[in-house]
């Protein structure tokens, strides 16, 4: 109690300090680990010159982007979206159609990043508008339908999208020549893509941090908590929800452009329901509504799917070889493991959710729930709302 | 005295069920007016029709003579109607401060500090608990937060829906005292209550609602003296 009242008296100062936060504001004690992480990420491709590793880490970034985008819809605004892959598809195809031999259009990658984000956002509104009155399970069903419709439309609109064959030969980013610099095409080298992704993610994190702390961010959370109360306090719930869909979708436009350009090809199968579920998993398992949590969730799920489950049969095989236990040599354990990789994945998910039901790094909101009002971040900035 | 809030023959339907039938009432500037009635009489619906949460399908709602019947809920807040809804509906996973900050959502004048101080002086308990999550407050504190949040928009008219519901008797007295204070500071109050005795105790005038119709109106004194009201609502 004494702690509370002491905090109370310094509240004005606290409010002021928080409103004075810049876009790069981390508290002092957190700065050093972030700095080290940043340096580590920047020098990683220089230290590890084996490009498939760089490629692997770069690809994790695509999932981080998707998870951060979906987090706006699910984590902030509380709208359960099971069709997020559709926006990823729309972003990818927007890029592929406007930067490939398909129509002979070759617009700059850098411009298309924004165009794809904008188009994805428009489709976000398109999905959002008819679902405004739906919540929870009902909304999930409609978004699920949307997620199924989009790849099907893409498959059948072969005139524009190349149908099942997809669009082949998408353009690679170019850094144009200027002032004696000769210009540079990314080509097949994963290293520039890695740095590009790093930059996109940093920008995304800064944007989303600011969004969360903005008036709109507070409106999202109010709608998530209680829509009627939100309307009664003067929040336009319609606009608020549409903006969640639009802005959430826009980040998948970034991810889509990056993905389409890096892969040279986009095909409709890439955007299945599994992608939507995987991204949702990343958000929920990492910690809904928490940027760090969502990033960690994306990395963990990606690492399990793309590394652990892929390597596991090999590990098992070498382990049995090393142990050299007679009867095991005749049993194809690694084959079993390979076939049951989805089962193993499921078990891992169940275990994580049992151990960390609030996610790996819960949002401040949920943390306060446990600590009862002792978290610095939970103080809102009254001035900022004005 | 001029009417700050007027309802003229308001009809509200929930699907095919008519909840309000030609409800007309008026609240003058500076008054406390109460709406009493049994469960399901339409008290909450009347408030929701005013604040735009349940739009009226017929009739007129006017604020200072200006028609607001078809405005969205958020625009009606901007017009100066604060609604402390039924069941409190505080943001339970947000702190007291965050709840109050959201109450000031429509404010763009940057002077919310003064309103915060006012809410804290009306409800010192909220000041003590400002960092606590709304859901961890007691029922009475949640009601305080609900009223406080509505006050943060600096309303001209405050709609209070069953503020005494489920509260301990001592807390009920506190809440009714605060309603008086808020009114004395210049906010007009339209109060919906089941506790008719308490409500008529603070109000200047009252309306009695029965199955979606206004069946009686008058000064609080007159209503308290009316044998019908005594029998049905005051338990005398």
The helix-strand sequence of chain B is EEEHEEHEHHHHEHEHEEHH
Estimate the strand proportion of chain B: 25-35%
CATH architecture of chain A: Orthogonal Bundle
Q: Which band does the percent of strand residues of chain A land in? A: under 5%
Largest sheet of chain B: 6 strands, mixed
Q: Provide the domain count of chain A.
A: 1
Overview of this protein structure:
The complex is a heterodimer of chains A (about 375) and B (about 240). Chain A has about 375 residues and is mainly α. Chain A has one domain: ABC transporter involved in vitamin B12 uptake, BtuC. Chain A has 18 helices and six strands. Chain A has a two-stranded antiparallel ribbon with strand order 1-2. A two-stranded antiparallel sheet of chain A has the order 3-6. In chain A, strands 4-5 form a two-stranded antiparallel ribbon. In chain A, a hairpin with a 4-residue loop joins β1 and β2. In chain A, α5 runs antiparallel to α6. Chain A is globular, with a radius of gyration of 23 Å. The two termini of chain A are about 30 Å apart. By secondary structure, chain B is α/β, with parallel strands linked by helices. Chain B has a single domain, classed as Rossmann fold (3-Layer(aba) Sandwich). In chain B, about 40% of the residues lie in helices and about 30% in strands. In chain B, strands 6-7-8-3-9-10 form a six-stranded mixed β-sheet, with helices on both faces. In chain B, strands 2-1-4-5 form a four-stranded antiparallel β-sheet, with helices on one face. In chain B, β1 and β2 form a beta hairpin. In chain B, α3 packs parallel to α6. The longest helix of chain B has 16 residues. Chain B is globular, with a radius of gyration of 17 Å. The model of chain B has no long low-confidence stretch (mean pLDDT about 95). At the A-B interface, α1, α10, α11, α17 and α18 of A face α2, α3 and α4 of B.
């Amino acid at each position: 109690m004494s702690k509370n009242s002491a905090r109370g008296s310094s509240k004005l100062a606290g409010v002021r300090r928080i409103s004075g936060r810049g876009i790069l504001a981390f508290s002092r004690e957190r700065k050093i680990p972030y700095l080290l992480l940043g340096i580590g990420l920047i020098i990683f491709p220089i230290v590890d010159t084996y490009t498939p590793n760089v490629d692997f880490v770069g690809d994790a970034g695509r999932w981080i982007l998707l998870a951060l985008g979906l987090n706006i819809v699910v984590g902030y605004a509380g709208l359960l979206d099971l069709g997020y892959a559709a926006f990823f598809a729309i972003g990818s195809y927007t890029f592929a159609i406007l930067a490939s031999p398909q129509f002979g259009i070759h617009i700059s990658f850098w411009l298309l990043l924004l165009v794809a984000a904008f188009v994805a956002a428009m489709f976000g509104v398109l999905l959002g508008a008819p679902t405004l009155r739906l919540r929870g399970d009902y909304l999930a069903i409609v978004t699920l339908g949307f997620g199924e419709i989009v790849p099907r439309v893409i498959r059948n609109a072969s005139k524009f999208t190349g149908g099942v064959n997809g669009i082949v030969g998408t353009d690679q980013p170019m850094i144009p020549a200027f002032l004696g610099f000769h210009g540079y095409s990314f080509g097949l080298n994963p290293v520039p893509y890695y740095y590009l992704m790093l930059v996109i993610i940093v920008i995304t994190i800064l944007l989303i941090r600011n969004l969360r702390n903005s008036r709109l961010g507070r409106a999202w959370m109010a709608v998530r908590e209680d829509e009627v109360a939100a309307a009664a306090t003067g929040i336009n719930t319609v606009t608020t929800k549409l903006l969640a869909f639009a802005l959430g979708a826009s980040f998948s436009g970034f991810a889509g452009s990056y993905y389409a350009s890096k892969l040279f090809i986009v095909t409709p199968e890439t955007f299945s329901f599994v992608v939507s579920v995987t991204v949702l998993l990343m958000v929920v398992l990492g910690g809904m509504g928490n940027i760090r949590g969502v990033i960690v969730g994306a990395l963990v799920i990606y690492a399990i799917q793309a590394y652990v489950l892929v390597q596991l049969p090999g590990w098992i095989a070498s382990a049995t070889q090393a142990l050299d236990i007679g009867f095991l040599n005749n049993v194809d354990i690694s084959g079993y493991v390979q076939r049951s990789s989805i089962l193993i994945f499921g078990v891992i998910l169940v275990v994580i959710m049992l151990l960390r039901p609030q996610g790996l790094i819960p949002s401040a909101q949920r943390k306060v729930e446990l600590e009862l009002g002792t978290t610095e971040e939970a103080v809102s900035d009254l001035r900022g709302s004005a | 005295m001029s009417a700050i809030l007027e309802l003229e023959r308001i009809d509200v339907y929930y699907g095919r069920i008519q909840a309000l039938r030609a409800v007309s009432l008026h609240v003058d500037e500076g008054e406390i007016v109460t709406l009493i009635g049994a469960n399901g009489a339409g008290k909450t619906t009347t408030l929701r029709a005013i604040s735009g949460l349940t739009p009226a399908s017929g009739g007129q709602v006017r604020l200072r003579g200006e028609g607001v019947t078809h405005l969205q809920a958020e625009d009606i807040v901007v017009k100066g109607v604060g609604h402390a809804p039924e069941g409190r509906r505080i943001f339970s996973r947000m702190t007291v401060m965050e709840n109050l900050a959201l109450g000031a959502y429509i404010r763009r004048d940057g002077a919310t500090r003064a309103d915060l101080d006012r809410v804290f002086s009306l409800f010192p308990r909220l000041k003590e608990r400002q960092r606590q999550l709304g859901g961890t407050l007691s029922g009475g504190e949640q009601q305080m937060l609900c009223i406080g949040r509505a006050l943060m928009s600096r309303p001209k008219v405050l709609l209070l829906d069953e503020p005494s519901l489920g509260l301990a008797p001592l807390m009920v007295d506190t809440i009714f005292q605060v309603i008086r204070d808020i009114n004395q500071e210049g906010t007009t109050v339209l109060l919906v209550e089941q506790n008719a005795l308490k409500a008529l105790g603070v109000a200047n005038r009252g309306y009695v609602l029965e199955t979606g119709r206004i069946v009686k109106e008058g000064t609080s004194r007159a209503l308290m003296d009316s044998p019908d009201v005594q029998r049905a609502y005051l338990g005398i």
